[in-house]
Write a structure and sequence with these properties.
This protein has 210 residues and is of the alpha/beta class. It has 8 helices and 9 strands. Helix 4 packs antiparallel against helix 6.
């Protein structure tokens, strides 16, 4: 059952790009039987957020604009282009934080079609004053995608990039983090699927049958 509540004062950020070696191509443009993976991710995000920002490499900007067409204007979509192509998800986060209008971003991958509104709203309700990052701990590990990032992260993100880092969690030691423990999410049915991404052609095919 869908929740019918107000939009969060947050920008949704979809990290696109990447070569998708295990998948056999850029996940941003993948589809099965005419169903675009990105479209399903958008369906999960658009009703709940102020805007959606898709972070991509320069080579993907024009193909994505053509793919989305007039949909981008109707759905308040924005494309943020990496300043340094090939620098991975951390560069994508930096580009999105600079481009977005909100103070906070909810950051997911373009390969996460099972995002659940109940889960990300529960996480948002756990935020604390002064936090830069709001992320869940699943199976004892901090999960950097399906997490909230504040614009105040930009300084720490830039420092990590300058040091050659590319991983999303590379700047966590320099940020104020609020962790949502898995126990807080257990009452939500199927909460683990909300954090799941697709990594292989087999998982992509299974997705459309579930």
């Amino acid at each position: 059952m869908k929740l019918r509540t107000a939009r969060l004062p947050v920008s949704a950020v979809i990290l696109g790009g990447g070569q998708g070696r295990r998948m056999g191509g850029n996940k941003l443009f993948l589809s099965v039987d005419g169903t675009l993976l990105l479209e399903r991710v958008l369906d999960r995000l658009v009703p709940s957020f102020q805007e959606v920002v898709i972070a991509v490499g320069p080579e993907d900007e024009e193909p994505l604009r053509r793919l989305l067409g007039s949909v981008s204007r109707r759905l308040s979509l924005k494309i943020a282009v990496d300043a340094r192509p090939g620098w991975g998800p951390l560069e994508g986060l930096a580009a999105a934080l600079r481009a977005m209008e909100s103070e906070w971003a909810f950051v997911v991958g373009c390969d996460m079609p099972w995002i659940q509104e109940a889960v990300f709203r529960e996480m948002w309700n756990c935020r604390r004053e002064g936090s830069d990052v709001l992320c869940a701990r699943i199976d004892g590990y901090l999960v950097p995608l399906h997490a909230f990032y504040r614009k105040s992260c930009l300084g720490a993100v830039g420092k990590a990039l300058a040091a050659g880092e590319r991983r999303l969690k590379a700047f966590y030691d320099d940020a104020r983090i609020t962790v949502v423990e898995e126990e807080a999410l257990r009452p939500l049915p199927g909460y683990r699927r909300s954090f799941r991404g697709l990594n292989t052609p087999e998982e992509l095919r299974d997705w459309v049958t579930l």
